[in-house]
Design goal:
The complex is a heterodimer. Helix content of chain A is 7%, strand content 40%. Chain A is built from 1 helix and 10 strands; from the N terminus they run αββββββββββ. Chain A has a 4-stranded antiparallel sheet with strand order 1-10-5-8, with no helix packed on it. The longest helix of chain A has 15 residues, at 18-32. Chain A is rod-shaped. Residues 68-73 of chain A have low confidence and may be disordered. Chain B is mainly beta. Chain B has 2 domains: 1-52, no CATH class; 61-275, no CATH class. In chain B, 6% of the residues lie in helices and 36% in strands. Chain B is built from 1 helix and 13 strands, in the order H-E-E-E-E-E-E-E-E-E-E-E-E-E. Chain B has one helix at 18-34, and strands at 61-63, 72-75, 82-83, 95-104, 109-121, 138-146, 155-156, 173-177, 192-193, 206-219, 227-242, 251-255, 261-275. Chain B is elongated. The model of chain B has no long low-confidence stretch (mean pLDDT 76). The chains are: A mainly beta, B mainly beta.
């Protein structure tokens, strides 16, 4: 620490006065109360250790599907409002159909929130998806695809290209600078093509599930 | 920590005694010994050399086996899950072995990420292009952990995750999600899917040429006892179908019938990181 206080010794008659003591004490107080940096902390031998750092000192994080609360932290999926069950030959497919979706960006109602300090916010997202490949998205006229995006407080911070493989995973990572904020809301958006003319509208088209979002705020 | 305050020791013209002065510095000593936190540290103020042990406990493994003897996984007619093994060195399995184990305390996060490049497979026979319709089969890759012993002989799903590793008779459903009820044991985060659809080639195999990534972030619930983890292993399973033989609203995988399928895997990257920051606010 660069500041050095004047050592007092009563026996040497170097008596301290209250105000003088206060001034020097306040120098320390100011440092400890928010001014610590690499200039007044030791490095290597004698460095601060985990025991010196209070829990959650340097970062915050939040996790979807962490099961801390059974249903509030459910894994992220396409959403029940788009879910349709279609029977076909004695089995049942459940996915979004064109009866309820016509092709546009949909931002998922599920979201995670995080209280951020000024610094960087790193967001991970991963899910698996399943697409049908039937007449509504005719391969001759383009074939199926699905696209995802991540949004922080309704601002797009990452998006994928079009995924044409009909079974696969979406994996996105974004690192963005953030200001101090309370309740930063991170959501997932998705879209795929609307139905072609004459295409069946009651065919299961796409589903994604197993969505995990992990947000890490580093602000030291 | 709480801000240090200075209730002034003396008024102008007076002196103070050593007891009072020492008490003030005792406050600072206490603060700097156990309670440093983000409130005390300037933004961007502390570099790694200032910290004698990191705040993160982390681990990292990469499994990669070049191009001559690729890792592979044999799916036995869809009834079991298979670890990804180096055919040249059978003991070389795509996994992270923690030896004596790592301890997850309440609030800890274990973040597992993996990438699997599926190079080729022999489903459908030589020169066959599988259709890619709703009832087309596909393989999945997923992780399980061993919390029994470092013998790594008891891999089980992480809490709340679907039983993708369980043996099932052909034609049985494996519930992967139950959106209309409690989701406790059907989660599928950390599952990677592949499509068997590919261009026809000559020979016994078909080019899959697909890379999928999975991520499973497990946070140890609060409160809960410590959990020792001895290992994390990647498994491959097929032939799965996205459909249900039950008339419920559950999404399920059905185990398909058929012969064994060999999957040649180009590379596997498996990463697991344990993170700890103590009590969650």
């Amino acid at each position: 620490m660069s500041f050095k206080y004047t050592k007092r010794d009563l026996r040497q008659a170097n008596l301290v006065e209250g105000p003088e003591f206060d001034l020097q004490y306040n120098e320390y107080k100011g440092v400890i109360n928010g001014g610590l940096d690499h200039m007044n902390l030791p490095s290597q031998a004698g460095a601060i250790t985990d025991a010196h750092i209070a829990n959650q000192s340097m970062m915050r994080w939040t996790v979807s599907s962490n099961q801390l609360v059974a249903l509030d932290n459910e894994q992220i999926n396409l959403g029940n409002v788009y879910s349709q069950i279609v029977a076909d030959g004695g089995v049942f497919y459940e996915a979004v159909t064109f009866d309820v979706y016509q092709g546009q960006w949909i931002d998922n109602t599920q979201a995670i929130t995080i209280d951020c300090q000024e610094g960087m916010l790193q967001i991970f997202f991963n899910c698996w998806y399943w697409m049908n490949w039937v007449d509504a998205s005719n391969p001759i006229t383009g074939g199926p695809w699905v696209e995802f995006r991540l949004q922080l407080d309704d601002n797009t911070i990452a998006f994928t290209g079009r995924n044409y493989k009909t079974r696969g995973n979406c994996h996105m990572v974004a690192t963005v600078p953030v200001a101090q904020m309370t309740g930063g809301r991170i959501t997932l958006g998705w879209r795929f093509p609307g139905p072609k003319d004459g295409g069946a509208k009651d065919v299961p088209m796409m589903w994604f599930d197993g969505g995990t979002m992990f947000a890490l705020n580093r602000f030291r | 920590m709480a801000k240090i305050k200075n209730d002034n020791i003396g008024t102008p013209g007076t002196t103070t005694n050593a007891v009072s002065a020492n008490a003030k510095f005792t406050d600072i000593q206490t603060a700097t010994t156990t309670s440093l936190s983000r409130l005390n540290i300037k933004a961007q103020g502390v570099d790694l050399p200032n910290i004698s042990s990191t705040g993160l406990v982390q681990d990292f493994r990469t499994y990669h086996n070049g191009t001559t003897t690729r890792p592979w996984a044999l799916v036995n007619a869809g009834t079991t899950a298979t670890p990804i093994i180096d055919p040249g060195v059978p003991a070389n399995i795509a996994q992270i072995a923690y030896g004596a184990g790592i301890t997850l305390v309440a609030g800890d996060v274990l973040r597992i990420q993996f990438t699997v490049g599926l190079e080729s497979h022999n489903a459908g026979g030589a020169g066959t292009t599988l259709p890619d319709l709703q009832d087309t089969q596909f393989p999945i890759a997923f992780v399980m952990w061993d919390i029994t012993s470092n013998a790594l002989a008891n891999f089980v799903p992480l809490p709340g995750r679907a039983s993708l590793g369980a043996a099932e008779a052909v034609g049985n459903d494996i519930i992967i999600d139950n959106h209309d009820g409690a989701q406790a044991n059907y989660m599928t985060d950390g599952v990677a899917l592949f499509s068997y659809r590919c261009a026809p080639v000559t020979g016994a195999t078909a080019n899959t040429k697909q890379v999928s990534q999975g991520m499973l972030v497990y946070q140890r619930p609060i409160p809960s006892p410590n959990q020792t983890v001895y290992g994390v292993r990647l498994f491959l399973r097929g032939r799965m179908l996205y459909k249900s033989t039950g008339a419920s609203g559950h999404r399920v995988f059905e185990v398909g019938a058929g012969g064994n399928i060999t999957h040649n895997i180009d590379y596997v990257h498996l990463t697991a990181m344990q993170m700890r920051h103590g009590t969650v606010n």
